[in-house]
Amino acid sequence: MGGRGSGAVPVCVAYQRLAVPAAGEVMSFNPNKRSPAVTRYVLPELRYDFGALEPHLSGKIIELHHGRHHRLYVDGANRAVEELIEARRRDDFQHIAAIQRALAFNVSGHVLHSIYWQNLSPEGGGRPTRALAQAIDRDFGSFDAFKKQLTRVAATIMGSGWAALVWEPVSCRLGTTQIKDHQGEVTQGSVPLLVLDAWEHAWYLQYGADKARYFEAIWNLWNWDDAAARLEGAQKLDPVLAMAVEAPGEEARLPH
Ligand SMILES: [Fe+2]
After folding, report:
1. CATH topology of domain 130-241
2. What is the pTM of this model?
3. What are phi and psi of 177, to 5 degrees?
4. What pLDDT does 11 receive?
């Protein structure tokens, strides 16, 4: 397991689009005719109607969450990119730390929400099958143990954050992570496969103070085919860190 050595060439869609820009997706921030064209982040269309996830998630929540909250992260990410370009143009890095914080917060918020929308489906729920099911059984012991662990990861978040099922490519294992805000306490290199938005804006309008009911209801919506596709893609990543991990039972290769 692990999918390494497949010879697959990594594909960066955004980079490919730079060669043939799609309308509205690439901007030229070029105040002095020196800045290169910059790929813009965009709010993705939902693949279902706002009300399609009811009764588990209300249409009003989805409409506000997608159209208002997610859009703020998209706008913030593009603004931070522009500020970085402007800082380089002016050769003024006085505010670089604040810009980097804004960039990490907003890009991470955009990425996680984009995954979240695709992780959910009106036809979701049930249990994963095939490779994802096998990986969950291998790395968590059982689906029930995985469900309990991810739910507890979400329920114990202090403040705003996410719970995520991730692929950790160094050890080639599934794991869970608790993400503070959108970007804090992330295991480096891990790839999110299934993300549970635990920010209040994701549930409070419908569930009030009883967020445990939201954490239970969302299991009726998980799109396991989407998570399985993410696992397949993540397993093609090679972090080039083979010397940083030892297979179970394997003797240490280096002399002590
Ligand atoms: Fe959110």
Report:
1. minor pseudopilin epsh fold (3.55.40)
2. 0.85
3. -145, 150
4. 57
